[in-house]
Amino acid sequence: MQLFLAERNGELVGRIGAIIDHNYIEFHREKVGFFGFFESVDDFSVAKVLLDTAQSWLGERGMPRMMGPINPSTNSEMGVLVDGFQYRPAMLMPYNPPYYGALLERCGLKKAKDLYCYHLEKNKFLSEKLVRVAEAVRKRENLSIRTVNMKKFDEEIALVKELYNRTWTRNWGFVPWSDEEFDYLARDMKRIIVPELSMIAEVDSNPIGFSINLPDIGKALQKVGNGRLLPFGIFKLLWHTRKVRFLRSLILGVVPEYQRRGIDGVMYIETWKRGTDLGFNEGEAGWVLEDNVMMNRAAQLVQGDRYKTYRVYELHFD
Staple 285 to which of 73, 127, 249, 310, CB 3.0 to 4.6 Å? Predict the structure, then answer.
């Protein structure tokens, strides 16, 4: 990765990262570079020189295509917000000025993929029919949902990583987590995790799926004030996190041999039951690929409102 800053008359006006993810290239067997960490003032000339610089750096290293923003891998933040600016940003999702999409398109980039996020509300989520169907699935599959064991956190995280790498392998943009990536994220999540909202799905006691949901600490972070977590900011963060009532449904997966059998729906319901019991009254689920018919249908089944769209762009230059 090479990072670049744009200056004009001594003033910083933009930034970009040019990124080569060898894991992505090896897994997908295609040469494509990423651009990420993109920020720019609303000025075509600034955006153009940033993107041209990233393109040149990637081209010199044999990349015929550029995709992004990806910060810095597809296991991290992706895309720019193109719809839903009136809603506050959720944890671990990008937020940007409304002009970014138009600026990237004016620079010649085209849409590669849209990612959807859904808003969920306590009073709209469940229906009697949905509950009946979920109970039927539990009995038919001999399905149980258990809480992640925080006393065996390292073992549980290793299990979640294994399940993730099995369940998401067919998704667009998927790259298997490396141990270093996943352990880094897990250490961060451990500080705010609510054990009851992190679940493992088992059939006949064999793990076949998982669901990770976290309190959205965005509002709590605002209470920290100066943005410094040390020495005392971390205590303010933890205190205000206890008051958060917005749930971030971060990721859910079922291994391929058990997909399309209603197990994801059972986990949605279990998440929402546990969440509302703990005082959460709304949340965000996502992202979901625009062409993932089953996951979009599942979000709509629980009365999810598609309220944000993120877009990943690409540019061919071979």
Answer: 249
Q: Return the pLDDT at 122.
A: 85
- Which of the residues in the chain have pLDDT under 50? none
Size of the chain in residues: 318
Quote the pLDDT of residue 20.
98
Nearest to 218 by CA among 307, 120, 90: 90
